[in-house]
Amino acid sequence: MSSSSAAAASGPTPADALRRNRILSSKLYFDVPGSKAPVVYSAAYDISFLGLEKLHPFDSSKWGRICKFLTREGHLEKNTVIEPLDASKEDLLVVHTESYLNSLKSSFRVAAIVEVPPVTFIPNWLVQQKLLYPFRKQVGGSILSAKLAVERGWAVNVGGGFHHCSAEEGGGFCAYADITLCIHFAFVRLDISRVMIIDLDAHQGNGHEKDFANDERVYILDMYNAGIYPFDHAAKRYIDQKVELVSGTKTDDYLDQLDKALEVAQSRFQPQLIVYNAGTDILDGDPLGNLNISPEGVVIRDEKVFRFAKDQNIPLLMLTSGGYMKSSARVIADSVINLSQKNLIQLGSKLG
To answer: From which domain of life does this come (predicted)?
Structure first.
């Protein structure tokens, strides 16, 4: 029997009760009118930090640019986008330890997590405001998006997907464990007990893998380049279904391996919610992903995952995760437009 199964058999622990109370008292879940599309975004997602954001290859204005493409081109109306609340300390303590959250009061520690060394020399109050607040806003977006997905059948958080962060450790530009958090909120608030994570970012999702080690309620399908960061061999033990790609994998091979992986996943696990980590760092030319997937390949990939969910009538939450080229925003917008045109999502625009 796994440790989580044993804990379940012996009843809730005081820590479980505290977690449950925190989730039930959170303000992150709120009612959203039907006139709004289940697309979650805030201008506060975008990071502008004295130009230091340019020292990391991540496009920290990606999230806003995705929404601009969708609204300017008439696929989404600005007033139908949902603004989330930012996750409070009590919300973050649902998963994170007090000591980990305290460690973020060190600019040196945050600099290591976001991989921008000069952040070390910035006063922490400014780091909190300009860097960690946008991340907390995206965490709130991921948590709310799970609720919307269950209510509407699908949701897109135009951010989130911080899959390298676990309860006790950040890294790889990921300071908070939004995937773990949104799933724990879903367990308590949405009466869900089976969740599938489909992680198709180019990197291994070692954060959520460590957080859900031996938790039989969560099934993890992770398809990633095994030859790049994070090389977390301990976390690999907790992947239910891993597809390890080699650097240079091309579009046709990638999509073929995805088809096979989804077929296996469908036969092994019947989830009540899918959390889809849709990183675009698989794109050909991405400086960190080292895969050779075309923009059209990314659009087809997302369509396959949404179709997989729709065919089984499983709610799906999409997070945008990694993607380190300026072209990522355009590709994500094109993918969302394609999903709408294929009737896999309904953006609710008069023009759509």
So the answer is: Eukaryota
